[in-house]
């Protein structure tokens, strides 16, 4: 009879010392005291920040998303959307992420894709405890040197003097 009591004590001690850490490592967001729900927008923001930190990513988003983002930033009080160009599907234990990027000219796109995947998977798994099943990287454009002035809407040189 004393052996089972000792086992229970050992199990309880192990649970107390590891707590949520052991539950998160397995992707479990449900514990003995409740459930943790993570909104899609939270995962999208984490993925967006992680992807934009990779050297060689010029901007996030493609097409209309970037156009709306540029308008939103020009409105007084408007802030950049860190989740721009990121789409996520979040389940109870897993997440799938799509990232749209614009790359800097001269960067190896396959290497950049691998770097984005590593960074996004690491950040989402660390911060959310979700198992990331896939990160799809879509390169929508490439930023060429000297394009800054054209993007701001001002000509590079005056047309008339």
Mean pLDDT: 77
At the fourth CATH level, what is the homologous superfamily of the domain at 38-145? Cation efflux protein, cytoplasmic domain
Helical percentage: 40-55%
Helix count, DSSP H or I runs of 4 or more residues: 5
| CATH fold-type name of the domain at 38-145 | Alpha-Beta Plaits
Radius of gyration: 22 Å
Number of E-state strands: 6
Query: What structural class do you assign from the helix and strand content?
Result: alpha+beta
**CATH class membership of the domain at 38-145:** Alpha Beta
Coarse shape: elongated
Per CATH, the architecture of the domain at 38-145 is 2-Layer Sandwich
Major beta sheet summary: 4 strands, mixed
Question: First CA to last CA: what distance?
Answer: 98 Å
Strand and helix order: HEEHEHEEHEH
Q: What percent of residues are in strands?
A: 15-25%
Q: Low-confidence runs (pLDDT<50, min 5 residues)?
A: 1-27
Features:
four-stranded mixed sheet, two-stranded antiparallel ribbon, about 45% helix, about 25% strand, disordered N terminus
Q: Would you kindly provide a brief summary of this structure?
A:
The protein has 161 residues and is of the alpha+beta class.
């Amino acid at each position: 009879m004393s052996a089972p009591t000792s086992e229970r004590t050992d199990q309880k001690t192990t649970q107390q010392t590891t707590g949520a850490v052991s539950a998160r490592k397995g992707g479990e967001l449900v514990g003995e005291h409740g459930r943790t729900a993570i909104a899609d927008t939270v995962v999208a923001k984490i993925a967006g920040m992680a992807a934009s930190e990779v050297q060689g990513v010029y901007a996030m988003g493609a097409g209309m998303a970037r156009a709306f983002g540029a308008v939103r930033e020009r409105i007084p009080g408007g802030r950049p959307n860190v989740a721009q160009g990121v789409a996520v599907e979040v389940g109870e234990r897993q997440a799938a992420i799509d990232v749209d990027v614009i790359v800097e000219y001269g960067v190896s796109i396959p290497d950049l894709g691998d770097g984005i995947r590593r960074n996004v998977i690491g950040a989402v798994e660390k911060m959310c405890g979700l198992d990331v099943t896939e990160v799809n990287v879509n390169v929508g454009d490439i930023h060429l040197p000297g394009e800054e002035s054209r993007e701001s809407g001002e000509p590079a040189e005056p047309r008339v003097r």
